[in-house]
Write a structure and sequence with these properties.
It contains 5 helices and 9 strands. The two termini are 32 Å apart. Strands 1, 2, 5, 6, 7, 8 and 9 form a 7-stranded mixed β-sheet that branches. It has a two-stranded antiparallel ribbon with strand order 3-4. It has 209 residues and is of the alpha/beta class. It has one domain: Rossmann fold, CATH 3.40.50. Bound molecules: guanosine-5'-triphosphate (GTP) and magnesium ion (MG).
Length: 209
């Protein structure tokens, strides 16, 4: 399940290298993915932002995020150390449909994902949710609470998005480090629970005669 270890074959005397896991940050256009990666990353996040132009208006659906001036065209990348034993690498997806072709590449080796949701544009998250459900990639739904957006209880969001009972639903603020950290920890815990459950239901090898 581990994405990798920073140093393979280190001698036993050295402290264990942390486990590194890859997580995706997905969700509709302008929902705050780049903001989320930027607010928790301890390295300068890699961004691939391009300016939204007049020429792009017919293609770029900016309804609800009219103040947005740039958009991600490839990915965001950041890193966060959760504790001595665990480092997360975050890959933010581009939000617009015309970049769907990048998703399979970005999803390779991902342990889990965050689907960031704006309650004013709930339907924009359907495609991301479907994507992870179809591939059995564990995900947490994080509602990014924008100023002025109505606050719904997590259970109402769960119902509206038709989520399985095991999928964590949290409300977050993509601009706040602690809030985002909680979301990321939730993804890791959910993925761990899933892995343990899968192990328990796996058929045991027949005892040797
Ligand atoms: N009020 C408020 N504004 C936010 C929040 N998160 C992001 N924003 C703003 O929303 C806008 C969109 O944020 P981005 O992080 O670029 O969104 P994105 O999902 O990466 O967008 P694309 O890559 O184009 O799909 C920016 O202007 C942010 O400053 C939030 O939690 N609250
Ligand atoms: Mg972005």
């Amino acid at each position: 399940m581990a994405f990798g270890r920073s140093k393979r074959g280190a001698s036993k005397a050295t402290p264990a290298e942390p486990v590194t896991l890859k997580l995706l940050v997905a969700g509709g256009f302008g929902v705050g993915k780049t903001t989320l990666v930027g607010s928790v990353s301890e390295i300068k996040p890699l961004r691939t932002e391009e300016t939204l132009t007049e020429a792009g208006r017919p293609v770029d659906d900016t309804a609800g995020v009219e103040s947005k001036s740039t958009t991600t065209v490839a990915m965001d990348f950041g890193r966060i150390t959760i504790n001595d034993g665990l480092v997360l690498y975050l890959f933010g997806t581009p939000g617009q449909d015309r970049f769907w072709f990048l998703w399979d590449e970005l999803a390779q080796g991902a342990l889990g994902a965050v689907v960031l949701v704006d309650t004013r544009r709930l339907e924009d998250s359907f495609a991301g949710i479907d994507y992870f459900e179809r591939r059995s990639i564990p995900f947490t739904v994080a509602v990014n609470h924008f100023d002025g957006a109505e606050v719904y209880p997590p259970d109402a969001i769960r119902e509206a998005l038709d989520l399985d009972a095991e999928v964590p639903v949290l409300v977050c603020d993509a601009r706040r480090r602690e809030s985002v950290r909680d979301v990321l920890v939730s993804v890791v815990e959910h993925a761990m629970r899933r892995a343990v459950a899968a192990q328990q239901t796996e058929p045991r090898p027949a005892p040797a005669r």
